[in-house]
Structure formats: C-alpha cells, structure tokens
Amino acid sequence: xxxxxxxxxxxxxxxxxxxxxxxxxxxxxxxxxxxxxxxxxxxxxxxxxxxxxxxxxxxxxxxxxxxxxxxxxxxxxxxxxxxxxxxxxxxxxxxxxxxxxxxxxxxxxxxxxxxxxxxxxxxxxxxxxxxxxxxxxxxxxxxxxx
Length: 146
Fold this sequence. Notes:
Elements: H1 13-16, H2 26-29, E1 39-43, E2 47-53, E3 62-67, E4 70-84, E5 90-105, E6 116-120, E7 123-129
Antiparallel strand pairs: 1-2, 2-7, 3-4, 4-5, 6-7
C-alpha cells in the first residue's frame, strides 16, 4: 500500500523498493540538518580531536580550510545516475546534489601546518593543537605633571 509522505516514507518507496533507495546509500537520503556533519569534540592535554561524521562522502568531496582563525569544513556531492534501455530511452533518470558546511573558531595563532586531518570510513578526524595566545602588549602610560 502506498503511504503519503506525512508518515515519513516516500510515495514511491513501495513502488521502487530498494531499487530507488539501496541500503548502501541510505544515509544520503537522510539529509535533515540534524543528521549532517555531526561532530564530536574531545579535549586532550595537547589539543582538540574532532570527529566529523560525513556518511556518503568521499575524500575528494571534502574541502577543509583555515582562514582568519576559523576552520571551515565543506562537503559536496553532485551525482547523475542515468539508466537507459537498449533503445536509448530513459527508464530512470536521477540527479543528486548535497552540500554542507561547518565552521569552528580555533584561534588566529593556529596555522594550516598545525592541523592534522585524516578521512576514513565516513569520518573526518581532525587534530587541532592547543597554542598559547600571543601575549598582548600591556600599555604603559607616562604620567604628566603639571
């Protein structure tokens, strides 16, 4: 029986079944904001470890940059899945695009060389070391007589 989308199921789920939503790509179709880029941050003595969940993304889809003290992670997928029969007529044509971005303030004293990054099993692991902030020069005033 077809269920309306208000029950959190697609109208075409029963018609297409796993053909439209294979289990290996299930995470790609669950794109609510709460499920994108979940991040665990753990503080250690030497620095901070960030584990950013990016299911369905590959290393080539990621862009990590540091600018003005902000560490920004961008992830983007652009896929086109066309299926044609022997006559060249479409039997299925799907396009999928997803992007997300998240920023963390790490301080202006951190450089690109300080940050270590590794991507495996859909998780981007980042290590940001702790650095002491540059000492702000204290202003010294000269008293004026008179």
